[in-house]
Design goal:
Layout (H helix, E strand, L loop, with lengths): L21 E9 L6 H11 L9 E4 L5 E15 L2 E12 L6 H8 L4 E7 L5 H18 L3 E6 L9 H8 L15 E2 L8 H18 L1
Length: about 210
């Protein structure tokens, strides 16, 4: 029974010794404003409803744009060579609004993997390029795994995937040697390829963790 009069006397009941099998990761969604980062977040929250350990919350600007969305945690088990690990993953979206650039560094702090969400609107090529350059400057310095998503593939005038790859300086190949796609074509509103993209990045993060 907990001693309600003096809780500190019961601290010996807390056991921190059995946490060797628990690993925590942080996945950040990055990209230009309104490219679909929040829609990704919402779909993952719904898809992983049975394993989420928080509902997440959102901080918005006065005009309804996402400033920061955080605190969605999911938990699952991962078996590696007969050892069963409990994986807790935090999913975060980073604002695409340039006037809040300073908040991005805070959100990216401690990131283990990043999903870049590009916009298929052909009028937003420069925004995609600028946002991707910012991201590359961050991940290269810290050697963080990332994947690239090209969202809104349902647009009538969607930019061709090869043109998008060229604008970002990505290989023209469909997949890398590790099996991940150079660019994941997605329709976040329908959930198309959202989970696939997330799971592939998560495997890169897990592999990177155990290889380091």
């Amino acid at each position: 029974m907990i001693n309600s009069k003096n809780p500190t006397k019961d601290t010996e009941k807390i056991n921190f010794e059995n946490s060797d099998g628990i690993i925590q990761f942080k996945i950040v969604y990055w990209g230009p404003g309104e490219s679909g980062k929040t829609t990704n977040f919402i779909h993952l929250r719904e898809k992983f409803n049975s394993i989420k350990i928080s509902n997440g919350f959102s901080i918005e600007t006065s005009d309804g744009r996402t400033l920061w969305q955080d605190a969605l945690f999911i938990s699952f088990k991962f078996d590696l060579e007969g050892v069963n690990y409990d994986i807790i993953t935090q999913i975060v979206t980073c604002t695409g609004q340039e006037r809040f650039l300073s908040t991005r560094e805070y959100v990216l702090d401690g990131a283990d993997g990043i999903v870049f969400v590009g916009d298929s609107d052909p009028n937003l090529v420069e925004q995609n390029k600028r946002s991707f350059r910012e991201l590359i400057g961050f991940v290269n310095a810290k050697k963080i795994p990332y994947v690239v998503q090209l969202n809104k593939r349902d647009l009538d005038d969607a930019i061709p995937i090869n043109s998008f790859k060229k604008s970002l300086g990505l290989p023209s190949d469909e997949v890398y040697s590790d099996g991940t796609y150079v660019t994941y074509p997605t329709i976040a509103l329908e959930g198309k390829n959202i989970v696939k993209c997330f799971q592939d990045l998560l495997m890169l993060v897990i592999y990177d963790y155990f290889s380091s």
